[in-house]
Amino acid sequence: MFGAAAATGGINPNKDVQITPPLADGVTSLGFSPRANLLVATCWDNNVYCWEVASNGQAAPKASTSHTQPVLCSSWNADGSAVFTGSCDKTVKMWNLATNQSQQVALHDGPVRHCAFIPENNLLVTGSWDKTLKYWDLRTPSAVFSYTLPERCYALDVKHPLLVVGTADRHLLVFNLQNPSTPYKQLQSPLKWQTRCLACFPDKTGYLIGSIEGRVAVQHVEDSIGQTKNFTFKCHREGNDIYAVNSIEFHPVHGTFVTAGSDGTYNFWDKDSKQRLKAMAKCSYGAEPAPITCGGFNADGGIYAYGLSYDWSKGFQAYNPSQMPSYIHLHGTQEAEVRRSVLVWPE
Length: 347
Fold this sequence. Notes:
Layout: E1 17-23, E2 27-32, E3 38-43, E4 47-53, E5 59-66, E6 71-76, E7 82-87, E8 91-96, E9 101-107, E10 112-118, E11 123-128, E12 132-136, E13 145-148, E14 153-159, E15 162-167, E16 171-176, E17 185-188, E18 195-200, E19 206-211, E20 215-220, H1 223-229, E21 231-234, E22 237-238, E23 241-242, E24 245-250, E25 257-261, E26 266-270, E27 275-279, E28 284-285, E29 288-289, E30 292-297, E31 303-308, E32 326-332, H2 335-338
């Protein structure tokens, strides 16, 4: 059962299932297949890994593939037969899990920071540090459209027809995918510090923004709604120490969400009632927090996977590989954590 395989020390205080052995380098993205409990992770070691997760939470290695440089992002196709992976080698590859073969399907002039498959349009969208957003029809080798962003792509999420892109210098671009070539709205982030992550509301009326300054913004697309319903809240802070919000994911059933941060914690929230549903114990490397760099739910929301690895926030001098292993943990979600409740929203 979930929670039976707790690690020693502070790396796994929540007694979640730990995938072993640890990875060779930091985890950059995690994603479950929409059709099965297959988990894919992309990593700084240039590799992409896939595990099959059993009902008891135990994960068995299934396959792996690689790029020539670190892999930053991933996205499953609609039927769960293939995974798209974007890399610092400027390419996006499509990895067929049945054949274990990969083929290049997209190319940028800089590292590819985010990619997402849009089943409703049968398009792949990619965002790069080359300051472009590109749409790809997988039947043709060239992008069907390229949009020039105001700065490098730092965050991206899609919930058709809503696409939101966050760039350097706190720019936000909101697209209606019924007209994907022109932003529906362009604005500055309501948060004062660099954008780290985005998550579109399940009902597509807005999105969440996470910043490096331990804060999340709840933002609605339409100003008429946002005037009364937009707000921000603090999280992933400990005393005077402020940590980045690295990942925000909505629960696929209940519409609540989880944030994960460089403070080594993940917390469950309900935006509509402005409540924190559950605060989890902090993962740590000895006296230092073990940053959670990414996370994701499986299709039914019963499993939350999260990646622990050094986030380079203190430079390469502070990195000790032997003392800071990169792990993936699997948390079996409880109803009390993800179903809306009546706890108090923290001030």
